[in-house]
What we know:
The complex is a heterotrimer of chains A (305), B (241) and C (596). In chain A, α1 packs across α9 and α1 packs antiparallel against α10. Chain A contains twelve helices and two strands. A two-stranded antiparallel ribbon of chain A has the order 1-2. With 305 residues, chain A is mainly alpha-helical. Chain A has two domains: 261 residues, ABC transporter involved in vitamin B12 uptake, BtuC, CATH 1.10.3470; 33 residues. With 241 residues, chain B is of the alpha/beta class. Chain B has two domains: 164 residues, P-loop containing nucleotide triphosphate hydrolases (Rossmann fold, 3-Layer(aba) Sandwich); 68 residues, no CATH class. In chain B, strands 6-7-8-3-9-10 form a six-stranded mixed sheet, with helices on both faces. Chain B has a four-stranded antiparallel sheet with strand order 2-1-4-5, with helices on one face. In chain B, β1 and β2 form a beta hairpin. Chain C has 24 helices and 14 strands. Chain C is of the alpha/beta class and 596 residues long. In chain C, the strands form four sheets. In chain C, strands 10-11-12-7-13-14 form a six-stranded mixed sheet, sandwiched between helices. Chain C has a four-stranded antiparallel sheet with strand order 6-5-8-9, with helices on one face. Chain C has a two-stranded antiparallel sheet with strand order 1-4. Chains in contact: A-B, A-C, B-C.
Amino acid sequence: MLAVTFETLRQLIASGIVNGASYGILGVAFALILGVTGRFHYAFGVLYTLAAFFAFTFFDRVGWPFWLSAVVGVLITVAMGVGIEALIYRPLAAKAGSNALLAIFVASLGLGIAGSNLIQIFWGAQTHSLLGFALKPVSVLGANVINVDVYSVITAIALVAGLTSLLRFTGLGRSIKATRSNPEMALLIGVDPARIYLVVFAIASLFAGIAAIWAALKYSVEPTMGFRPVVLAFVVAFLGGTAKSPVRVFATGIVIGLIETISSIWLPVRWTQLVVFVILVLYLISFSVNRSWFTRLGTALTGKA
Amino acid sequence: MEPTEQPGSTLLDVRKLSCGYGRKQVVFDLDLRVGRGEIVSLFGHNGAGKTTVIKNVLGAYRPTAGSVEYDGADVTGASARANVQRGMALIPSERFVFGDLSVYDNLLLGAANLADDGERERKLGKVYELFPILSERSKQQAGTMSGGQQRMVSLGLALMSNPRLLLLDEPSLGLAPAVVQQIFSAVRALADDGLSVLLLEQNVGQALRISDRAYVMRSGRIILEEDAATMKQRESYWDLF
Amino acid sequence: MQVAANYIDQILIFSIFALSLNLLLGYMGQVSVAHASFGAIGGYAVGYLSLTHGWNVFLAVLFGAVLAGVVGAIVALPALRLSVEYLILLTLGVSSVLLGLFQTFPQLGGTYGLIGIPIASIFGHDLVKTSDWILPLAVILAIVYSICHRLGESPFGRVLKGIRDDDKATLSLGKNVVFYKVLVFGITCGLAGLAGGLLAGFNSLATPSQFGFDVSLAIFAMVIFGGTGNLTGSILGATTVVLTKPFLEWAVSLAPETAALWRLTFYGLLLVVLMRLRAQGLLPEGVSIFRPSTWRAPRTNPELASADVVPATVVAAAEEWETRLEVVETPADERRRERTWADAPVVLEVTGLSKSFGSIVAAEDLSIVLRKGTITALVGPNGAGKTTVFNLLTGFIPPDSGSVKLNGRELVGSKPNRVARAGMVRSWQDVRVIPRLSSLQNVMLGVQDQSGEHLAPLFANVAGVKRREREVREASMDWLSFVGMSDFADTPAGALSFGQSKLVALARVLSTNADVLLLDEPASGIDTQWVEAMLALIEKVREQGRTVCIVEHNLHVVDHLADHTYFMELGRITDQGTFQELTNSPRLAEAYFGTN
């Protein structure tokens, strides 16, 4: 039994929750897009990165106050997300018919590649710091975190709560759920899928933008910052379920964050990065395992018919 | 009710409709009429094209030829959204509810048209009156209810939008005869109140019980038009299918 | 000179990457964003074996290729049942796991990788200068190209394309789809490992960034640009992607770092543009940025577009058949028909077939018999479970209990491809012709026992494969003529009208030479004229001695065709006999029409 102090465990849980909250919020966003529109929006990572870069530019280069820069950065990201759906994905889907999923994925890949390189062309490849406000250590229930961590977890919870309420209590939310649940029927009762898709992309881009600002404050602003969070978003979305409530997907994110940090008790740090992907691959394998293999294996082993 | 020649008594007038999916033409040169407050049945074997007809009437698909006139206005090729606002409602034969959503959510989705909350509450009340079980189970996920109850949800959903023309696709599919009777009686009562219904069915017996007129389709064309009374007299329906 | 050689070598190596991904993605339709990480297996094998164990670089390359192939075959197993978005996710996960694994082991150099791989030597020659690599790489590329070409443009390749467009239909024609998927994953990932090993040997290093996710995306882009299903295009695609950087440096005087960025931006945008231009049928056959003529979808043959015309020969057959229909059948004729049916030997015997999905009973204690040279019909009200029966008989759904014996041989428990090879095939209600294969190729896909579909004869017995292919082609043309579609032999099946594609699908099941043909709603979705054409053809098929079973909703068709009819209600057979007998039963009328 490895000796782990209570303090260490507490610390690991705290950082697990902090990381998990950001994975969760991104997972909720991606799950919303995938569940409602069926689009594999790989360019999600570029939008995430752009929010941070725009906020940085307005704050550091143009000289605006931090909060204004952050808000404008996020709004630009929302506009771009909506623009991508309206100008690229939708026309593509209209023409591609049964191959739409793949065609959109490839286009999204193209956008992702082009986008991340354009970022480097315009802003350079170096890392920048977003010194929006001073980072101060904070103690939460005995664990040491920083103020940005607390804010990011609180905003994450607020966003998830907001989305859940939207889905549960409003007409728009009902229409979104209807489109996700039975798109053909939604069309028949007069729901406008085009409008719903735009709303969904706006919401998801908003979530991504806000998560990016917190990450930028805590770490830094650099061109590849979007890659890992977005892959984690995919993982959380798939594991949490694209047709499930945002609360569940968010909780899955937290669990993933906790698994990542707590596994460091047993695994060297380099391995903890892998843990999430190993879980993903195992999950997909279990998904696809033919149950009858087990029955046949059982029959072979026990000799019973 | 006898089909009359008076202008204005026809709610839906479909002429020379040709339509299909992609390169596959399924309906050829079809004429069909539904009067106000009439229940008209459309019979025909599976694959005869009945569902294609109503989907094109509603606007889920665009016809390749022909016209659809609704309440005197030409709505050929109009969107489903526009037609729903004009008072059409379609209930498909499969996947006819939003399974993950509660009964209440399902019903409210039909009410997007309604002007204000007051009207919505009233309509909801009427639907609950018609199908009390929906009120009891309003929080239940629609997909977990029995087939008959889901049919009621779908009917309730359609009624919430205050339709004047109801396009019903095989409502009796998979339901016990007693349940079918209950649902069909509800439909008849609504028609007596002024609702027009185009009913697609394979269950000829139950459908004729509540219908005024009937059409029969085969391989994309109408092969027969008759009033319900006459059709009920037929010895057998085998040669119609 | 060495600078140019460097680019040439890179082009050669990345061509190998692109060709192998094209075979996997373009020919077999399996999306993988992990291709470079399979290259990493090869690259790290070379690095580790040559540095730590002193292996000859080329030997290590071969070892790495085999290792990558084995891993690829393993990855194929979960991939078998995954839809596109899950497959993307799986390959993303595998890529991350592989690269992550390589970075965690100190023996593999951690985050820095392995450097200082010794100079490669082949047949005693040391490859010191970059230009020394050109010849060996060119030879290897030529070999890889011929392998990929042989696999892709052959009967084997025809099966791959079938799997790409419709793996269920391909399975139903007797092809072992699982085996093909595992095999091709193995081969293509092995070739990626080969390329990766060569890359490591060439650069004298094996690092994570050399095989990173962005490299996988670059290879993906090479395949898309060059045109999926177009092997030469992949080489051109690799050339474009590799050369864009120096081109930008030279033409626009960009600094190397900036040039790299603009290159990537450029081809990212190009991907988007290419999808917009030609999205319908993404991954269309041979659409390449290098051939603008392929950019626009081909205008369909005007004769096809204007009229959905029943082929003349079939119309003639239908008319001839109609005159025979004029003769009204007497009850004596009826009884004679039934007796003829009863006398014919049993070909398919189904006993006690049952299947439930939770509380829904799809089939209960089903027992039917199909007799040689007869047409049996399955009718029943909606929801009776008729199509489920076909799925149960052909192994698409395993029954809970019961037996299905074809010529005495038990079929329960066999996969659909085995059932097809045993002599029972089915057609589909939604037709399922392979859209990007021609009508003739579709029919050829149905023929059984093609040596060219198997790996060993494909490479070892070229003459034999060629001969067999000729036979298959002739036989298929005969079947195509039988259904009247020989004029459309080279038309892509996706361009045909619905009725025409139904005829091709019929020819396809006929070409399997199966004893038992299960036709799912042969008369649905087509106009009266076509229905009569189909009826005439099915009649002719019966005259040839085949056993046919049809599921039909159009009772008019059943009346004319069926020698014997089974009536199904809610998963059970409740009556059987001639169609007239069944329609005389008031109880059945009530079950079907709900008369009260």
